[in-house]
Amino acid sequence: MLFACKLTVKNTYRNFLKPMAHTKDSLSDLKTELENETNQFRAARLTKLKAVYDLNIDPYPSGFKKEHEISDLLSRYSFLEEGQETQDVVTIAGRILSIRNSGMFIDLHGPSAKIQIFSHKNHLSETQQKLLLLLDLGDFIGVKGTVRRTPRGEITINAQEITLLGKALLPPPEKYHGLSDLETRYRQRYLDLMANPETRERLRQRSQIISEIRSWLTSHSFLEVETPMLHTLAGGAAARPFKTYHNALDMELFLRIAPELFLKRLIVGGLSDKIFEINRNFRNEGISTRHNPEFTMIEIYQAYADGDVMIDLTESLMYHVAREVFGSEEFVFEEKKLDFKKPWNRKPMLTLVEEATSICFEKIHSLEDAKKAAHQKGIDANDAPTWGHVVEQVFAEKVEHTLIQPIHVTEFPLDISPLAKPHRHKPRLTERFETYINGWEIANGFSELSDPRDQRERFMEQMREKAAGNEEAMPFDADFITALEYGFPPAGGLGIGIDRLVMLLTNSPSIRDVIAFPTMRLKE
User: Fold this and answer.
1) Which residues of the chain are modeled with pLDDT < 70?
2) Cβ atoms < 10 Å from Cβ of 350
3) pLDDT tens-digit profile of 7-23?
4) Which stretches does DSSP call E strand in 209-353?
5) Does domain 34-172 have CATH number 2.40.50.140?
6) pLDDT at position 6, please?
7) Which CATH class is domain 198-344+405-513?
8) Are strands 223-224 and 114-118 parallel, antiparallel or unpaired?
9) Is residue 434 part of an annotated ligand binding site?
């Protein structure tokens, strides 16, 4: 409960300009703020801030020597019996989220735990006692004192010294009701983190997931690399890019939609046979519960591998992350039980489409016949430019949402896979796969196209599609063709959407729940 301050705005003007060399400008600005402040909560805290300055205390010091973590202390002294005291002196720091009995009892919160602070006037100087009355919820303080367990069983620090580390001028969200308004939670994530331990835990788990992915790959001899975020061509994926402009070079640039073509250049150069990159991609497209304009991807490339090797890698990597971070291979997402145990199912795209619709696209050869077959199933594919695009549209509308348990969808059409190697036995298909869980695409991989002449023709076909109105078609990257002409080994490639994977593993229904600061419309 926020305790009442006995000071008033009016009486704080007394001695307002008392000489204090290191705070003179601050006091002058503070007086102006107090005179114009209309928010009663902020006005009350500005009043206390003035009183802190009057005590010759800096409310915003440069640093503090914190020697212990709250969570560590709770574990270390868990053996104490009720009423048992120690003479062990500890130094901790954190944010005040509860004050009782005019500051005698304070709940001090760290990132993952809280501890009770007991402040008795007999143990504090006169100045410290005055400071105690000026503390508010949300303030950061440092505490030095001894450890005990109260008769009621709570680990407590008997304060010997309290240091104000950061005075809050606005109150935190009410802790008992949390912060439930989604707009505020996403737009002001710092308030969400203060109020909701679930948000803090989810973002920590995200960090752990990424850490385990990195650890698994480096332990398997993969080299982490970095490639450009600014591209002269928006290649490597089918998506609309964000455009920017480089003033010094007088040229248009694009925020990358994928790092693929640069990572393959590293394979050409022989930097390593196994490389990966974890970074942001940017796509100038719609926002939904599964899409954010900037998102985190990992792309992995392995020389002398193929699509089948990358499927095995996908399963092993995701299974490892599930076990290491969460201790289980089974998860519940919105009441659906997901099982990550290996091996996962594998099925060709055409087989899944035929099972769902009875359409055998393998026996359909012309674009017009493919469109007619789709139309008979209630799918308008009139704008599809190729046979493969029709297949993809039917799959998206009739199959995708049914793929709840982990599955690798294999053998994608060649004309929607411009960077994938043709299937070694089926010329209209490629050695490409996508991994689906909960009806979502989680990963995309394939045997990499290594023939520069074939890649040139694929790019030319993409240019023809772009001329026909496909805004997401890839540009012609002449330098990438040149790189391939210097020799590219057989290789497998893989991309995994980190955000969607975190959503599944943490039972988060919106991508905004797993991104600390999601993209938001400007507030009017």
Assistant:
1) 1-28, 35, 37, 175-178
2) 23
3) 333 333 333 333 344 45
4) 223-224, 230-231, 243-246, 251-255, 274-282, 294-303, 330-333, 336-339, 345-348
5) yes
6) 35
7) alpha beta
8) unpaired
9) yes
